Each structure stands twice: as C-alpha cells, then as structure tokens.
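agent: user wants the structure for C-type lectin domain-containing protein from Dreissena polymorpha. delegating to structure tool.
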Amino acid sequence: MTWNDAEYHCKSNGGHLAYITSQVEEDFITNFLNKERLNQYIWIGLSDKGKEGSWSWTSGYPFSWTKWFPFRYNSDKHNSEDCVALVPAIGVIFGIHANGAWDDLHCEAFNPSLCRYDAHQTAAALVNDLLGLLSNLGHSIFG
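agent: tool returned. relaying tokens verbatim.
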C-alpha cells in the first residue's frame, strides 16, 4: 500500500506508522525483520512532506534519532522522495548491507508497513496488524 494508505490503516486501528526513537527500538525491529527474512521496503511514520528536509513522525513524537542508509538521505535527486521506509534487512545497496537502515522513497510506492500502538491498545488489534504485515509479505503463521 502507499505511505498515506498505510498511515490511514494504522490510524483506523488506533495507532500510527511506527516511530523509532533509539538504537534499542531499531534493533528490536530489525531482529524481527531479519527472522522473517524480509526482502521488501517497509513503511515507517517519518516524512518531510510538509517541508523538504524537515522530518517529522506522523505520531507527533519528537524527531531526534535516525538510521539513514549511507548516501541515500535527502540528496538532490531525491527531492520528490518524502516518505521513509526501512531498507530490507537482507538487502544490499551499492555493496553495503542495509540491515534495517532508512531510505526516503516516493510516497506512492507500494510497500508493506509497520504500525505502532500505545500500550493501552488491545491485543487483538496488535495481532491483527502483525498477521496483516505477514500476509502482505506472503507469510503465514498457520502453515
């Protein structure tokens, strides 16, 4: 789904596209994605749609920590790339292992997404979102 559709999906279930605030959170997400052997970009809730180069999370959480993929953040040729995705954990770009780094992409690209919910969010919504992510990636925990 597009980045806007992904944020709408997350909001309709009481969350937002994921925001990542530390290396600990990044490692947790990357380890999960590595276990699934994912090879697709995955939308997170960061964009500079409002003003080029001014990054913000859809949740409103303060933007202070990054893990940009080398040579890919905000270069002149990427001015129309306003939405951020995790680079495939098993991906290699320009000979560099990505391992969950961030890249800005065109917001209309179709990618699976990662939602984040507050602690009070129901377990059923979290399970449904995880099942949806795995389904979008062609995985199933039932067989």
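agent: one observation worth passing along. The mean pLDDT is 80.
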